[in-house]
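Before relying on records like the one below, remember that each one covers exactly one chain. Contacts with other chains, cofactors or solvent are not represented anywhere in the record.
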Amino acid sequence: MNVTALAAHTPEAVRAALAARGWEAQPAWFAAIGIQTFVVLIEDITEPEREALVHWGAKSGTDVLTGDGWALMAGAASRIAPLARYDRAPAELARLGPALGRLLAARAEPSRTWTIRGGEVSLDKPVIIGIINVTPDSFSDGGHLPSADAAIEHGARLAADGARLLDVGGESTRPGAAPVPVQEEIARVVPVIAGLKQRDLGPISVDTRKAEVARAALDAGAAVINDVSGLRFDAELTVVAREAQAGVILMHMRGTPATMDDLAKYDHVAAEVAAELAATAEQAERAGGGIARERIVLDPGFGFAKTATHNFRLLDELATIVALGYPVAVGLSRKRFLGAATGRPVGDRDRATAVACALAWERGARLFRVHDVALTREALALASATTNPP
């Protein structure tokens, strides 16, 4: 008899073991997902629901920890999955089914594409978003691109290095940054977007919170709106995105760049950011927004209304955001928390950025907004080579 311990942190180990023993790819993948440990936190639960869940856990072999108004359940996904079925779950737990079903579906079949204006972006391999800041005051590269021509040439280098999307921003969102007038922001970004479009360097994103800026950028050739406010700063921006059928990146932030540092207060940062992002996506998609789900990407907002400790925890627990079922983008490039870990100044954090992006890929992120595309591409090439989804 030979006994081998398989790597428990990834379903790939079980999938590979089953495939080597004759299982077909898809059944092997679903079986591997099914026996992985699944942990869910359930809040706002009633006393009868809590008692029913404890009873279910004892029967099914899942662990259940409970307190006043909450429960935490852990076990193999295949053992928990019957609770998502109306014909298998106890009547007392009927409320749990829809939400649990969505989490399980996102886990088993993550998004493979992102629909943007005029096309789709495959998510099977890492999508690197190259940063083009045409601002005088961005935290790490403000003023480095003094003209539209310089910005366009920089975009060409980013594309050559492997960027699949170019993100053009005309307003700094560093902590304490002041807002930029609409016409000034338009004057900064539109010539650059038009020039990049003319060079046919791939899809272009505009990094803005303002509907008027986004409309001008889309007219110039942008296909994506990247909004750090998650469509909360300017209600008209939702209408612009919907009518243009643009892709949208909705980021988590509390307050504004001027106030966000004072709002960095969390008891459990990953769970709270996930809940707030879920509400943002719900607003965009269903509650009058009308933006199609397949056009939405979520960004947990590293560095925005979060301390260094919050950012480290959020990176480690990024799977909580991925479990919402939307593709996840991360903006880790040169952030302060990387400096807190490495001691490196802002201009010397690209290696740390690349490592952080590789960790984020392992935890389920698929889009990566960075300054140094070439270095990040190498790190992500290695990280993605260790996974082999069917």
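The first strand starts at residue 37 and ends at 43.
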